[in-house]
Design brief:
Layout: H1 12-15, E1 23-26, E2 29-34, E3 37-43, E4 46-49, E5 54-57, E6 60-64, E7 70-74, E8 77-81, E9 86-97, E10 100-110, E11 115-125, E12 129-139, E13 145-155
Antiparallel strand pairs: 1-4, 2-3, 3-6, 4-5, 5-8, 6-7, 7-9, 8-9, 9-10, 10-11, 11-12, 12-13
């Protein structure tokens, strides 16, 4: 905590910017458990700890389903809220699950609700299917998906198309 007395000077790196001091952490690893079970694991190349958030560079989030399958989220950067345990990804976000890859520009993991939220446009591609939309919500436990807007689906599996191509 900073003292407001005149004798206390801010560090040089924050004196000109007006920002609060931050601490740099190399290769952080944060794990959320429920008993012996890992719920999620968050790691990054580096992080800057600020007053109420942690800014992560090249973050990777691993969400574990009830059957211990892994959903992996990559992004350019993320903000982690230690008190709420929420994670905000931004910039070239990709999500990998089984043979699916989802691409978007922002993603939010709400730890309280245990759900992934993609507020903007996204594209998800599987082996024979591509779908696009906006406003995706996915429950980590049940793996149920809800898309709020603009659902577009392309299925190129010849068997489901009755042999037509």
């Amino acid at each position: 905590m900073w003292s407001h007395s005149k004798s206390t000077a801010l560090p040089k790196e924050t004196a000109n910017t007006g920002e609060a001091a931050s601490t740099r952490v190399e290769k952080p690893l944060i794990v959320e458990r429920k008993g012996e079970r890992i719920i999620w694991r968050l790691k990054a190349e580096s992080a800057k700890q600020h007053e109420s958030t942690m800014l992560l560079a090249t973050p990777v989030l691993e969400l574990f389903t009830e059957t211990d399958e892994v959903v992996t989220v990559h992004g350019d950067q993320a903000w982690f809220e230690p008190l709420k345990r929420n994670i905000h990804f931004k910039g070239n976000v990709s999500v990998t699950y089984r043979d699916w890859v989802l691409l978007t520009n922002a993603l939010y993991f709400d730890s309280t609700r245990d759900e992934v939220i993609v507020p903007n446009a996204f594209t998800a591609t599987g082996q024979h299917t591509t779908f696009k939309g906006r406003g995706l919500k996915a429950d980590r436990k049940t793996q149920m998906l809800h898309v709020a807007h603009d659902v577009w689906v392309k299925d190129s599996n010849p068997e489901r198309l009755g042999g037509l191509q």
